[in-house]
Amino acid sequence: MGEGAVVGLSSAATLSDAATIHRDLIRIGRAIRARSGGGELSAGQMSALWTIAQNAPIRATELAEREGVAAPTMSRVVASLERHGMVMRTTDPRDGRVSLLAPSAEGMDHIQGASSRNSELFEMALGQLADEDRVAVERSMRILANTMCGLAAPTADSPDTADSATVEGGGS
């Protein structure tokens, strides 16, 4: 074997670790959907709805920035949320050309119901762990989430970070 093979093995090991974490996160998402009654919204739509609720009223461009996706991707997500009756648009009083997004009453009800069901599932799962494992999981997830959220957001030139299944309401 040449040097390239050794480098390949090293890279493969790193990719394998990252791929394993990604797969585990997908498995967690699927388990949540299966045990919480699913719902009509994809993970990407729920994330956008939560961000809208926490920052309302919010411009779609700011929402895209906060969610780490390109503006066209967010436009599709917002349109889907509107079709589901989860989001309302209003005109920005300071700039009539701009729409502001806010959750509808149905959107808020959806968030509160999904949040409590999902929190219960996480609490059940975390409750089955030894104390030191629970602390390690909580710390690791916080570090990983903060690191992932700190990565550079996509630009107009880069591909979207969300796949079309997530955007269109499908999912894994």
Helix- and strand-based class? mainly alpha
> What is the element string, with H for helices and E for strands?
HHEHHEEHHH
Number of DSSP E strands: 3
- The amount of beta strand, in percent, is 5-15%
* Total DSSP helices: 7
Distance between the termini: 38 Å
The average pLDDT score comes to 81
Instruction: Characterize the overall form.
Output: globular
Radius of gyration: 19 Å
Query: Main sheet: which strands, in order across?
Result: 1-3-2
Uncertain stretches of 5 or more adjacent residues: 1-9, 156-172
Describe the protein's topology.
Elements: H1 3-35, H2 43-55, E1 58-59, H3 60-67, H4 71-83, E2 87-92, E3 95-103, H5 105-127, H6 131-150, H7 164-168
Antiparallel strand pairs: 1-3, 2-3
Helix pairs in contact: 2-3, 2-4, 3-4
List keywords for this structure.
mainly alpha; three-stranded antiparallel sheet; 3 strands; single chain; 172 residues; disordered C terminus
Structure notes:
- The longest helix has 33 residues, at 3-35.
- This protein has a three-stranded antiparallel sheet with strand order 1-3-2.
- β2 (87-92) and β3 (95-103) form a beta hairpin.
- The chain is mainly alpha-helical.
- Residues 1-9 and 156-172 have low confidence and may be disordered.
- It has helices spanning 3-35, 43-55, 60-67, 71-83, 105-127, 131-150, 164-168; strands at residues 58-59, 87-92, 95-103.
- It has seven helices and three strands; from the N terminus they run ααβααββααα.
- It is globular.
- α2 (43-55) crosses α3 (60-67), α2 packs across α4 and α3 crosses α4 (71-83).
